[in-house]
């Protein structure tokens, strides 16, 4: 079985659902945002100091490392789909699962706070989603709505679809 890569908006459940999927199928779980923080520190601080371009470069490097290993479930950062070269490698090495979620639910899940550099007000969620939706759906092998499911239920239903 190929690796599984989870894509989607922040708040869609990539980390929590990804951990559950990995546990169910006996694969390693890797969260690229967690790796970023362990290497570079707080994402918002990095963004403010180095800018989005440098953030995307570092995110790309971490994401490539994650998806090119085998036997993994990988949670990619919400903006990974903006990098077509990265996503080409993701598609070659992974079954791509898009986690979707209703905007009202995303608003409840996402805390508008300083560690979300691209989301400083509620309207940002909808704007980012509109800007990325075509990419998200274009790269997805499986689309799954997590709006009203627990991570465990989402994971078991996704595993059944794989």
| Multimeric state | single chain
Q: Tell me the β content.
A: 5-15%
Using the CA coordinates, give the radius of gyration: 15 Å
Look up the CATH topology.
Rossmann fold
How many distinct domains?
Answer: 1
Instruction: Find the count of extended strands (DSSP E, 2+ residues).
Output: 5
The amount of helix comes to: 55-70%
The count of helical stretches stands at 7
Task: Give an overview in words.
The protein is α/β, with parallel strands linked by helices and 162 residues long. The chain has one domain (3-157): P-loop containing nucleotide triphosphate hydrolases (Rossmann fold), CATH 3.40.50. Helix content is 57%, strand content 15%. Helix 3 (43-68) runs parallel beside helix 4 (84-93). The radius of gyration is 15 Å and the shape is globular. The N and C termini lie close together (9 Å). The model is unreliable at 112-118 (pLDDT under 50).
